[in-house]
Amino acid sequence: MEVKQLIDRLNDALGWELRAVNMYAHYSANIRGIHRLQLSPMFTTESTESLTHADIVRRAIVKLGGIPVTERNPHEITHCENYDEMLQYSLETETKAAEVYGEIMKLIGDGGDQEMYDAIEQIYLAELRSLESLRLLMS
Ligand SMILES: [Fe+2]
Ligand SMILES: [Fe+2]
Description:
Order of helices and strands: HHHH
Largest sheet: none
Strand content: under 5%
Oligomer: single chain
Number of domains: 1
Number of helices: 4
Bound molecules: fe (ii) ion
CATH topology: Ferritin
CATH class: Mainly Alpha
Structural class: mainly alpha
Shape: elongated
C-alpha cells in the first residue's frame, strides 16, 4: 500500500465532504414549495452527516502522517430552488462520494489498518444508502 497515494485519495474524499456540507446546507435553506417540508430536514441531515464523515476522514489523514485539506472540492455548487434539480445534484454528489470511498477501500486493502478500513467502509455504506434513497425519491 502506497501511503502517499492513500493520503491523496483521503484528501479527495475530504474535499468532497466539505463541498457536500455547503451544498446540502444551501439546498436546505433555499428549497421552495411543498417539498420544503420534508426535503429541508433531509438536506440538513445530509449536511450534518457530511460534517461527521469529513471529521473521520480528516483524522485518518492525520493518523497516516498527512495534512488534511482545508478547502472544499472546487466542483461548482449550482444554485437552484426546485426540488428535482436539487435531487439531481445530490445524486451526482453521492455517486462521486461512493466512488471515492470505494477506491479508498481498495487502497487500504487487506494489509492495511483494519480500524481505518472499517471506518471508511461505514462511510461508504452510508453513501450507498443515500444514493439508494435518492434513486427512490426520484423514481
Ligand atoms: Fe459523506
Ligand atoms: Fe453523502
